[in-house]
User: Fold this.
Amino acid sequence: MTFESKSQFIIGVVALLVASACSANPPRDTCGPAVTTCAAAQPDRQKTLAHIKEHVTYPATRRQILAACAQTKEFSESEKQWIADNLPEGTYANSDDVARTLKL
Assistant:
């Protein structure tokens, strides 16, 4: 076996090992019952604006806004987590206050 064919053989073996390791270890769920923490994901801007305008009665506290989000299936668990992570304690006069705070 020549040096070139040995190198090609080794590269091929390494590529197969890497490919098999990746397929044997699928990505973990980011949220759900089996996961103790949830990777936050910013929700769609329009969907969030519509929700805070239509489903929250103002003035509203952070707790009331998060409760309204928790009651809906519009948001995934990771999106709900993002809202919770980015909405500080306080009382919000209207949906514009919430949108401004969330930088939507």
